[in-house]
Amino acid sequence: MKDRNHLANIGLVHQVNVIENGLIDIPMLQVLQPDGTLHPQAELPTITQQLGLKVLQTMQYVRLLDERMVAAQRQGRISFYLACTGEEASTVASAAALEPQDMIMSQYREQGALAYRGFTSKEFMDQMFSNQNELNKGRQMPIHYGSKPLNFMTISSPLGTQIPQASGYAYGQKMAGLEAVTICYFGEGAASEGDFHAGLNMAAVLSCPVIFFCRNNGYAISTPSEEQFKGDGIASRGLGYGVRTIRVDGNDVLAVYAATQTARELALAHQCPVLIEAMTYRLAAHSTSDDPTSYRSKDEEGSWQLKDPVTRFKTWMQSKGWLDEKHNLAFIEQTRQDILKELKLAEQVPVCPIEQIIEDVYDTPPWHLKAQLAELKTHIDMYPEAYPKTSGRS
């Protein structure tokens, strides 16, 4: 057993030395200026026209999906929705920097990452209508996606649960000798959960190849950042846990892509965690249950509209001669029609048989779950008006 000295790397002072906030300045990587032009000193990541077009179209697709599904919730067709409007660059460009074998562990505003990987409009609609075609058999509330073929772990409602899970999954990838990482998305509000601290410390101590991707959009629902913490954002916490850290403009596709590429390379080369703090803004409400006018001004929202990540990247694509506006408008219109078509089809598909609710937990459903199922059927038969999709099928 070797001797250990936990003072080995600590310097000495001989007067009281108080370390104050701001001693370490953490800069923000920005490649594209808000108007979509390159910074003169910017180092451009390697990106092809084909990749750029896929990123742009995925962002446009997600914005159309968000618009349609918020409207569907207002019409009473689905119960709940969370839009990622304004944060598309953070989710789509980071996913573009990954490889298919990398695991994605999401919070609930990363539909862009899932769409980039190939999740179809039909699959999105089946999930949000919880019908019998849904991959998880309709057992989750809307926007709790999951796809084993696409290496996208099913979303959990409680904030932060995926953070220590990501550390553990990445440790498993490392032990198996896989050329793969795990990326874990969360908001700055979720970073106030204990799971965040446990997950980062675990990843640092066990040297797990995991990318912690924090979307710092300024608000934890209605609570602004200055009421959540006093430190220098989330990036400073990574340094505190000994985690390599990058702060990036989350509305800049090229910056996010470059930062995530670098993070993945570091995570694999050094078998270590990397924290990315993407500075962005949620232009939409937190969810369809939220009214942002109660806690932020229209002027504030307007200032961030000028940094719209979709417009910003589209401008750059046009400056490169990589975007045909006529074809792009045709893509948007066709996509809008496809989304509406799949919505109408999905809402007509029946929900799963009630018997499936007790399956997939035990090899054979035990007696007590069978008894509970019988009680549930009796309850539904007594109050059919409360269960319009299930009554008559129980």
Short descriptors:
single chain; Rossmann fold; 2 domains; six-stranded parallel β-sheet; 12 helices; 40% helix; globular
Give the structure's gist in a few sentences:
The chain has helices at residues 49-74, 88-96, 111-117, 121-128, 162-175, 194-206, 235-240, 253-270, 298-305, 309-319, 325-346, 367-382; strands at 103-105, 152-153, 182-187, 210-216, 219-220, 223-224, 244-249, 274-279. It has 394 residues and is an alpha/beta fold.
H-E order: HHEHHEHEHEEEHEHEHHHH
Give me the number of helical elements.
12
- Uncertain runs are none
Report the span from N to C terminus: 64 Å
Provide a descriptive summary of the structure in words.
The chain is an alpha/beta fold. The protein has 2 domains: 49-346, Rossmann fold (3-Layer(aba) Sandwich), CATH 3.40.50.970; 354-386. 40% of the residues lie in helices and 9% in strands. It is built from 12 helices and 8 strands. The protein has helices spanning 49-74, 88-96, 111-117, 121-128, 162-175, 194-206, 235-240, 253-270, 298-305, 309-319, 325-346, 367-382; strands at 103-105, 152-153, 182-187, 210-216, 219-220, 223-224, 244-249, 274-279. The model has no long low-confidence stretch (mean pLDDT 94).
What is the strand and helix layout of this fold?
Layout: H1 49-74, H2 88-96, E1 103-105, H3 111-117, H4 121-128, E2 152-153, H5 162-175, E3 182-187, H6 194-206, E4 210-216, E5 219-220, E6 223-224, H7 235-240, E7 244-249, H8 253-270, E8 274-279, H9 298-305, H10 309-319, H11 325-346, H12 367-382
Parallel strand pairs: 1-2, 1-3, 3-4, 4-8, 7-8
Antiparallel strand pairs: 5-6
Helix pairs in contact: 1-2, 1-3, 1-10, 1-11, 2-3, 2-8, 4-11, 5-6
